[in-house]
Design goal:
Layout (H helix, E strand, L loop, with lengths): L1 H12 L13 E5 L2 E4 L4 E4 L12 H13 L9 H11 L8 E5 L2 H16 L3 E5 L8 H4 L15 E4 L12 H18 L4 E7 L16 H9 L3 E5 L24 E4 L10 E5 L1 H10 L10 H16 L2 H19 L6 E7 L2 E6 L10 H13 L2 E2 L1 E3 L5 E4 L7 H15 L1
Parallel strand pairs: 3-13, 5-6, 5-7, 7-8, 8-9
Antiparallel strand pairs: 1-2, 2-3, 4-10, 9-10, 11-12, 12-15, 14-15
Helix pairs in contact: 2-9, 3-9, 4-8, 6-7, 10-12
The chain binds 4'-deoxy-4'-aminopyridoxal-5'-phosphate.
Pfam family, one: Aminotran_3
Cofactor: pyridoxal 5'-phosphate
Protein name: Aspartate aminotransferase family protein
């Protein structure tokens, strides 16, 4: 049956989509941290940072169906849901970040942030990290070097190495990052390009999950601002409590971004995203543009988003994530005594990166071994993925409702697979 589905996909959807695994999974149901395939086999989901409050959470499902049964419409009419949700969402941000514009995907939110940054600064130059991913629109894919050669990068983009706490032990990564950003600005200016923004994913998900030491973005933010540009935090991956102990990844860096983009977990699977802004940054864009978004901020999305925030609050998921994340990281760390391939265990909350190396001295990336391990974990019923320019870093991002028991099962399965 799976083979039939794959053949139909290829015929109907064309050649551009890739599925996970050589032997793709076919899910029919999800609940909490578990997904169930067509044969009824359960899989522990440690991959999915979309279903943040758990797959098909009843409170979210109820809010969605309640609103869908009453009204969903174009967003150029007045409706209260958008205001109630905007208030609730903005209350999770520092006071300076006082306005929000809704979109449907993270890509669109970043695309909008790019436009706003250009209008506000009068510049066009954008700095991103070496292996960043920020989305798929034509403009934003140019800011996503991890998409590789399928993208023609515009001349206004500069890349800088991510602050790598593992490969630069003993160095001041904050200082090095700020220096690289300053050099990128000099290079732009030498070619007549005015800087508009430094855009970073605050946990550097696709660069390899770099979280330490907290605060390493603050100096670079000063550098870009001194050059007339703004600091944009892409919270599509780390946002909504995932880093544990706080709602937003940038909070670990002791700074307030000028713009923030959010998405993925915002609707627990319902497509919704947003850009949060300091009001003064939105002024020039507001005067000049005739922006509208047919679906962004529609009544159903706002009801869903509200329900997600309610569950994060009522189930205490921000604290839970910090506790269970620390527990899981510690237990994975202990596996490194036994398995020499584990070079580094890092991350924050329930966003964990495990870097696999062939040799702890020269740190040669264990790329093929990582792919084998991810596949082996899948055969054992646990879902994870890989990241980083050498695809040798396990990316572990379970739903925030991941329990201690789930963490124990995860670690024992990882232990067996590594063996
Ligand atoms: N930014 C980051 C950091 C992401 O990881 C992603 C999606 N993986 C996006 C933006 C784009 O979001 P979307 O797929 O919803 O367009």
């Amino acid at each position: 049956h799976e083979r039939d589905l794959i053949a139909r996909r290829e015929k109907l959807l064309g050649p551009a989509y890739r599925l996970f695994y050589a032997n793709p999974l076919h899910f029919v149901r999800g609940e909490g941290a578990w997904l169930y395939d067509a044969a009824g086999r359960p899989y522990l989901d440690a991959y999915n940072n979309v279903a943040c409050v758990g797959h098909s959470h009843p409170h979210v499902v109820a809010a969605l169906s309640r609103q869908a049964a009453v009204l969903n419409t174009h967003t150029r009419y007045l409706h209260e849901t958008i205001l109630d949700y905007a208030e609730k969402l903005l209350a999770t941000f520092p006071r300076e970040l006082g306005q929000v514009m809704f979109t449907c995907t993270g890509s669109e939110a970043n695309d909008l942030a790019l436009r706003v940054a250009k209008m506000h600064t009068g510049g066009t130059g954008v700095i991103v990290t070496d292996w960043a991913y920020h989305g798929v629109t034509d403009a934003v894919s140019q800011l996503s070097p991890s998409l590789g050669s399928g993208v023609l990068r515009g001349g206004y983009v500069r890349t800088v190495p991510a602050p790598d706490s593992y490969r630069s032990v003993g160095q001041d990564v904050a200082e090095a990052f700020a220096r690289d950003v300053a050099a990128a600005i000099d290079d732009m200016r030498a070619k007549g390009i005015k800087p508009a923004a430094l855009l970073v994913d605050t946990i550097l998900s696709s660069d390899g999950v770099f979280s330490d030491p907290p605060g390493f973005f603050a100096k670079a933010a000063e550098v870009i601002r001194a050059a007339g540009g703004i600091f944009i935090a892409d919270e599509v991956q780390p946002g909504f409590g995932r880093t544990g102990g706080q709602m937003w990844g940038f909070e670990r860096h002791g700074l307030v971004p000028d713009l923030v983009t959010v998405g993925k977990p915002m609707g627990n699977g319902h497509p919704m995203a947003a850009m949060i802004a300091k009001p003064e940054i939105l002024k020039a864009f507001g005067r000049a543009s005739r922006y509208f978004n047919t679906f962004g901020g529609n009544p159903v999305s706002c009801a869903v988003g509200m329900a997600v925030l309610e569950v994060i609050e009522s189930e205490g998921l921000v604290d839970h994530t910090q506790k269970v994340g620390a527990y899981l990281r510690e237990k994975i760390g202990r596996l490194s005594d036994k398995h020499a391939i584990i070079g580094d265990v890092r991350g924050a909350g329930l966003f964990i990166g495990v870097e696999l190396v062939r040799d702890r001295k020269n740190l040669e990336p264990a790329t093929t071994e990582t792919a084998r391990l991810i596949n082996d974990m899948r055969e054992r019923g646990v879902l994870i993925s890989g990241t980083g320019p050498h695809a040798n870093i396990l990316k572990i991002r379970p739903p925030l409702v991941f329990s201690k028991e789930n963490a124990d099962l995860f670690v024992s399965t990882l232990d067996d697979a590594l063996a």
